[in-house]
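Re: duplicated header lines in exported structure tokens

Our pipeline writes sequence and tokens for each protein into one text file. With two proteins the header for the second block appears twice in some exports. Here is an export where it did not happen, for reference. First protein block:
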Amino acid sequence: MKAEIITIGDEILIGQIVDTNSAWMGEQFNLNGIEIYQITSVHDDHNHIMQAVKNAEKNADLVVITGGLGPTKDDITKHTLCEYFNTELVFHKPTLDTIVERFKHRGIDMNKLNRDQAMLPEACTILPNKMGTAPGMWFEKNDTIFVSMPGVPFEMKYLVEFELLPRLRKTRRTKAIFHKTVLTQGVPESVLAERIGDWEDTLPTNIKLAYLPNPMAVRLRLSAIGDDVEALKRDVESEIEKLQKIIPEAIFGYDNETMSEVIGRQLVLQNKKLAVAESCTGGYISHLVTSVSGSSAYYNGSVTSYSNEMKEQLLGVSRSNLEKYGAVSEQVAREMAEGIKRVMKADYAVATTGIAGPTGGTEEKPVGLVWIAVSGPEKIVVKKYTFVGDQRDRNIVRSGQTALQLLRRMVLGEL
């Protein structure tokens, strides 16, 4: 089943509110075997709404409309839908009874505008709304289902969960959909696409691959559509097994896992402890590590040492190296990692020192330069990176995520 979502409201188009409704519905529909074909936002305008609904009918089995069902003059969805479905508004007593009860419970007097919300299109099936005064409306035309709901998020969610989805399941028109996301790092998108090109070309016709890159990683999402979700799951897992043999070093996790979760799981399996020493990243790595529930099982602590004095006193960095090579150097990064591992009595340690910017850079040591040291039970690795750009926050994020990538490889014995 293909669906289109139409959101109605000038407030969306001018950026006054963010359309979170469509994102939530997209997720819920996907879980129930409904493929989102398109999302459209339109003005509170009769002609615009009519055209959007007409266009959606051409491509979708299900058209979901949100917004424009309130009691004020700018709420014109009901009247527009009456014209589209060649019907008229009629009085619906159960809806009025619900409205009366809600106002009575809140101790508020009703007015004519509120009563008018009980005037509903004769051709629709009413979807009772226990969360508000405007019910949902279900229409059918030319083998397409149209459902209009309030734009208020908690009202929309109630109607989707307790009215729309249960009714759609009874139509037996939904397909099974299964998604699995492979998380990769260390290989640029273009290089990755070239390496897995032959595998991608031989995917079954019902499995689609999407590349979802960000600055530090590329997610590969496999989406399968069919009749049996368990069969789809087996097919996708079989394809992932093939992929693992092609890029084993690039895959670090699946679905919504984070690098921190993957590292934490490995540390628990090894019964090892981690500590962190940060300079240019200012605590960002520690934040990533401790964002995982239960991280206290493997994380001993950290030191954020911006000043040379604290690097000396807390981490044991030698003054001679600070004076000779500077705080942003291979030697200092190495001593920071070894020092924090010793101080925190950890098995693994990661340390960063660099120039996040936008100021502080020189020709010899430009903004974006960072040294990352990762120390394990048997060895230490120190690497130099120069991130292009003077955006401080971005450089901190890239430095922190790169440090975790190196740490993961150290924990897995790949360094």
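Second protein block, exported in the same file:
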Amino acid sequence: MYIDHPDVILIGSGIMSANLGAMLKRLRPELKIQLFEVSEELAQESSNAWNNAGTGHAGICELSYTPDRNPDGSVDVSNAISIFEQFEQSRQFWGHAVAEGMIDSPHEFINPVPHISFVHGQEQVDFLKARYEAMSSHHFFADMEFSTDRDTIRQWAPLLVNGRDSTPIAATRMTSGTDVNFGSLSRKLIQWLADQEGCGVATHHRVSDLHRTAHGWDVTVRDLTRKQTFKTSAKFVFIGAGGGSLPLLQKSGIPESKGFGGFPIGGQWLVCDDPAIVAQHQAKVYGQAQDEAPTMAVPHLDTRVIDGKKAILFGPFAAWTTRFLKDQGHITDLPFSIRPDNIASLLKVGAYNLPLVKYLVQQGLQSMASRMKLLRTFYPEAQTNDWRLVDAGIRVQAIKRQDGEAGIVHYGTEIVTDKDNTIAALLGASPGASVSVSLMLQVIQNCLPDLLETPQAANTMKQLIPSYDESLQSPSAIQRFKQLHTTSEHQLQLQSS
């Protein structure tokens, strides 16, 4: 179904567009919204459950968000606190969507899975203890547990301990962690959007060009089924096409796009779905980053719930690629993205990140034996026959003209907008999908502020995201945080059985 000359065009059917479209339609029901997706099905690239870690990133277990100790031995946990609060906004909105009947069956997209940080070696044990002391002192992480006792850690996650040598180990755990199927969630929200008056969703449609007009944007679209090309227009365009965002941003020609480049990194998982092994592991376990590894390649041993079935995934293993999308990409994506305004940034990345390039090549050439060797640092008794290798998604690490020596955005997300706020594009890395509601709220506040100007609109937004205009971080907000956290927990049916 097409909406002729909509107010808003959404490019891509992943979690970003899904959240933005649903929020916009709730804020102003009369808005006309059209979504275009290049794949034949919705949410098949970065949001597909097999193409991401499925971690409800709340800063609990990801050591890359708190990587270093200060000279006095303490650990700065401010990033983790910020990410936790942003994920709370995601939980609130998704919980509201369930409570209001916009989407159903929350167990199909979110499930309770404890989050564990696990380290070995005395230096890392000391680091994790310092991290725990800093985090547990904040009310967001008051329930965090820390242990160096093997019997305790074995109770949390027996695969980590059984068969391990005498090297010191430590772990932290919070049982309130989650596993999220962002693909399922995206499809549910977009189906709700498609059912609303004045909204259209078109799959197997590729947006091929964008041209600025006096009233917004002319958008060229190719219907891949009928093999026909047509044009439409909108006052506002959101490019949430995952790895495909950069080429479209470049085609827009906005000055703000100059200097941006993309560095694609492929991924692979080791997967075990043997019920006897899966039953022994109920946790997402994040470990120490490997030297030169990008943020998205920090190893973790994860319980996943995909389409109602549990499995254990380990990885991701990074790989060199020139594609920007896993299924809809082409080997020419990277070379065709090189422009005069970003070639210096790309060359700088190559010159100053030779260890990263070497790491990616080595990762791509790994044997199954070398992958199993890394797995056994988490799961000492792992047997090769129990695991299979599957391809994960592609992450296009954004490259900025001015970003220190390297130019690569390893952490966070870039929202690029033009000066008139008529177009916005999403580039960047983890935590991405988990904080998508907060990111889309930023898009609305920056690009469509008139949607929030009236008291009625502000009241609607408070219903969608109760804490959107307040901070839950301060000590005075402890009771408010507990109230909202408990409410979303019940709405999303996250109580542990």
